[in-house]
């Protein structure tokens, strides 16, 4: 851990990068030739296009040198081989192994962990067949028609975003097996609202908590069990668990069955583990989930390439670091032009901000440069009628990540006034990229667009399960590479601990802090 | 327009503010005494508590001077009296008048506009009675059980957020009259998915477009009409319009009836106009909407007070400007500890970023200071398991806006392991405020919390219709005051125009820009 864990600001390549002239005018950089060629293949007809990013050839060369100097692909290989990359928690980082093997056999406690993850997938698949064919039924003997996941954070945002991304397309193809719902917030109105809408006798619940101790999830479990009992349904016949083998939940008798994960897959990286696979396979079946995992694995393969112009996740990561640490931009907007990706920005917000919102490097020293940015976004074209005003004419520059597809999912596209809805959607997408980059002059000051707003575009023919898996893994790998570049541990989350501890003091009546005590009194009035 | 439209950086009070010593240690500032007293009444048992904001007495005095020097309450009074406050579009700004009158009679074209807005509300109420009692029915003779709003931007985000905020509570009290859905995105998968789930013979659609020309909305209207016809339902018996009297839609025969708005209520401020009232009254009835409007009007009254310690919206605005322009913070997170407010941050994101994401002052000159920040957020406790890591331990400080309630809406709260869900929710909320402000020391660097993260808290007994109206108007008025302080026009949105124009070029086959043409070719491959 010497040469590979430099701070960003002690890298020679970073000094070179900082010394380079930034792109003077994005409008002149963005030629038709560049639009057609400044892109990296992500396979399956999917591309990462960076034509409208403010990076020219000298900057790209310096970024390549930075990647080489920080040995980020080598660090990725170590991670794949089972090195302890989450140093603060002394854990391996193995989410890539949930969708395929690229490194050495990773053995823990005498078990090959690739086999372990695969076994869990196989067990989930076998269980899903029983649910789908009616062998496993609810307490009243009815077939399950709904599935509801109880989980929070990584047990909610990723699986929910993935489900929403595929549900309409699968339903349109008559392939939706069970409709899914999600309960996450400890606010009783969350469970209350979802339970009011569910036919409980036909609903299978999935309780997801790695530790088996998550306050919100266990609280909502109790509300759900009580609701089932109030309809004289045996909760144990309506619930499965996804947890670690060592958690208290794993020993409980209150479940139809349990599927296992382990400490080497972090919550925000767990969509391809049992955490995501159980609900997705119940909703869509095994074939869809296998395609989804294959797409993710494909991006993991591409991420091994040391050449930035053949490694989309690495290039994306490097450009982001350049924008954050050289150009000084504070935030990034994720703008999928796809209603199916309506919650994908919320997932990326967790993935990115929880992984790289850190101030301490892997040697336990405070860093003196910016790390992860604020990430936010909404599905387009909705955002255009909302926050794009600030993106175009505000006083800060916010780099943009567009995502688009040539075709829709649901087969309801129609020609209306000379073009289809999908054509209108994509016309907006392309127009925005150019408007942000080039702007326009105008004699009235408030109609001037300065332009110079950089964006990248990921596009594919259609949002299939495989393409969704690719998208997911692309951003996971981007975030991982950025953590390597910043020399931070992207795989722990110590920042959630203090709030948990103080919450326990409040609930246990053991408040030590006098200000906290005063807030408690406000809320008793 | 001389003294009242100073730039922020030419104000004497701003120079004084900048010269003041910032609060050295938020942890020592946050005493129990301060928690109990550093708050402004919002009436109805609702409070704006700024105890954990990094503003001490000298800073508050300078902020009061800044408000006085910029004459912001006087500008607000001019606005209420019908002054042309949207200068670039030469329009009055009258959303306050949709919920009550506080200034002079505003007469336009011989009509008192307060009367006009009230008449539209009365017409909506009369129509809702006919729908609810079954006098007005769908094409097949069935009663309407669902309402679906077709609109985008301000015709979607605000009304949707308001509907979601009240739906569970109203349903729990058996007061939900029609369940509501929303179609916004031009992506055909949006309409496709919503229509697949709606019982069309029992669904009433509301088409909302002020101009009657919004591309997304008219396209979705066509999809909806086609879907109705495909079930042999007469679209004209399933659709009402909300539009301006001068729009092409207002002349159309294809609606059961039309309700009117005008150019003096901007989309993002239109939740209390016919845009919000139609769907909310169909869903919840007249009483609920009247309470909602009364709550908004109440905040409009409070906003007239020139004393910052009695004007919660003004104080909130001033603290935000201090954080943005003196402390240099780039973003603000909105964190409602209420699942019912799940889309309230998305509404505030539009309200704030579209209003104040501007770089040009009201005299048409570029400003040399930061204006509106990035606004983002999710309902708590979900955010704690997502992006709070960065908020606690990231390299940027992001000011926070917490919102909380003593009681839940739905009556499903239960004691589980010694406390109810609502108690757990609020324990988390209070713990977070203190954790962000005070942080903690630790011998391991990655477990250190530096603290010094400022937050404010708006809290009330329960999220009732009246409290929701108060919340909505509080933020509208905050945004308005910030626009006055920054000397920008918060009421136009020129930043959306360029993208629209380029989109029309693409769809019309008249692309002038060669890079845009190249992007079009990418999407034809």
CATH superfamily of the largest domain in chain A: Glucose-6-phosphate isomerase like protein, domain 1
Count of separate DSSP helical elements of chain A? 18
**Low-confidence spans of chain A: pLDDT under 50, at least 5 residues?**
none
Q: Globular, elongated, flat, extended or rod-shaped: what is the shape of chain A?
A: globular
Q: Order of strands across the biggest sheet of chain A? A: 1-2-15-12-10-11
CATH architecture of the largest domain in chain A: 3-Layer(aba) Sandwich
Number of domains of chain A: 3
The value of Rg of chain A in angstroms is 24 Å
**Major sheet summary line of chain A:** 6 strands, mixed
User: Which percent range describes the beta-strand content of chain A?
Assistant: 5-15%
**Class derived from helix and strand content of chain A:** alpha/beta
| Cα distance spanning the termini of chain A | 55 Å
Average pLDDT rating of chain A: 96
Percent range of helical residues of chain A: 40-55%
If interface size is counted as residues with C-beta under 8 Å from the partner's C-beta, which chains form the largest one? A-B, 158 and 158 residues
Which helices and strands occur, and which strands form pairs?
The structure is a homodimer of 525-residue chains.
Chain A: H1 12-19, H2 26-29, H3 32-37, E1 39-43, E2 46-49, H4 57-69, H5 72-80, E3 107-108, E4 111-112, H6 113-132, E5 146-150, H7 157-172, E6 179-183, H8 188-197, E7 203-208, H9 215-230, E8 239-244, E9 258-261, H10 274-284, H11 286-302, H12 312-326, E10 331-336, H13 344-356, E11 374-376, H14 388-393, E12 400-405, E13 415-416, E14 419-420, H15 421-438, E15 455-460, H16 465-486, H17 497-507, H18 514-522
Parallel strand pairs in A: 5-6, 5-7, 7-8, 8-9, 10-11, 10-12, 12-15
Antiparallel strand pairs in A: 1-2, 2-15, 3-4, 13-14
Helix pairs in contact in A: 1-4, 4-12, 5-16, 6-10, 7-10, 7-13, 8-9, 10-11, 11-16, 12-16, 13-16
């Amino acid at each position: 851990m010497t040469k590979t864990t430099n701070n960003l600001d002690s890298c020679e390549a970073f000094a070179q990068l900082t010394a380079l002239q930034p792109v003077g005018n994005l409008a002149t950089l963005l030629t038709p030739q560049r639009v057609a060629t400044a892109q990296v293949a992500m396979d399956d007809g999917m591309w990462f296009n960076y034509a409208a990013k403010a990076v020219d050839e000298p900057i790209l060369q310096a970024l390549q040198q930075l990647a080489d100097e920080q040995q980020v692909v080598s660090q990725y290989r170590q991670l794949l081989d089972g090195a302890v990359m989450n140093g603060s928690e002394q854990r391996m980082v193995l989410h890539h192994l949930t969708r395929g093997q690229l490194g050495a056999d990773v053995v823990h406690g005498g078990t090959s962990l690739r086999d372990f993850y695969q076994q869990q997938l196989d067990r989930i698949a076998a269980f899903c067949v029983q649910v789908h064919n009616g062998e496993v039924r609810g307490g009243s003997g009815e077939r399950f028609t709904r599935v509801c996941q109880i989980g929070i954070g990584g047990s909610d945002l990723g699986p929910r975003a993935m489900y929403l991304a595929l549900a309409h397309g699968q339903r349109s193809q008559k392939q939706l097996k069970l409709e899914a719902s999600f309960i996450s917030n400890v606010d009783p109105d969350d469970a209350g609202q979802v339970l009011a809408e569910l036919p409980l006798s036909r609903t299978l619940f999935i309780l997801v908590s790695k530790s088996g101790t998550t306050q919100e999830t266990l609280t909502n479990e109790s509300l759900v069990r009580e609701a089932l009992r109030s309809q004289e349904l045996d909760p144990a016949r309506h619930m499965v668990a996804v947890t670690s083998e060592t958690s208290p939940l794993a020993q409980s008798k209150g479940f139809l069955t349990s599927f296992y994960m382990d400490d080497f897959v972090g919550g925000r990286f767990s969509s391809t583990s049992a955490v995501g696979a159980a609900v997705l396979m119940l909703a869509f079946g095994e074939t869809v989930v296998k395609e989804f995992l294959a797409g993710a694995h494909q991006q993991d393969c591409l991420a091994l390439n040391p050449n930035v112009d053949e490694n989309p996740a690495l290039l994306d990561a490097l450009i982001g670091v350049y924008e954050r640490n050289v150009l000084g931009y504070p935030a990034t907007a994720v703008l999928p032009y796809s209603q199916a990706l309506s919650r994908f920005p919320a997932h990326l917000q967790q993935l990115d901000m929880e992984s790289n919102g850190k101030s301490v490097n892997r040697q336990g020293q405070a860093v003196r440069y910016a790390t992860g940015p604020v990430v936010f976004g909404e599905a387009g074209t909705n955002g255009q009628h909302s926050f794009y005003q600030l993106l175009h004419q505000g006083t800060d520059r916010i780099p943009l990540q567009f995502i688009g597809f040539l075709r829709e999912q649901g087969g309801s596209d129609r020609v209306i006034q000379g073009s289809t809805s999908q054509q209108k959607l994509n016309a907006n997408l392309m127009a925005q990229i150019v408007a942000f980059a080039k702007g326009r002059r105008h004699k009235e000051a408030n109609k001037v667009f300065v332009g110079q707003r950089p964006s990248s575009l990921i596009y594919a023919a259609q949002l299939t399960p495989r393409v969704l898996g690719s998208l997911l893994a692309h951003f996971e790998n981007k975030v991982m590479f950025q953590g390597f570049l910043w020399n931070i541990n992207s795989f722990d989350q110590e920042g959630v601990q203090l709030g948990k501890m103080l919450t326990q003091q409040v609930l246990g009546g053991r408040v030590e802090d006098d200000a906290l005590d005063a807030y408690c009194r406000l809320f008793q009035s």
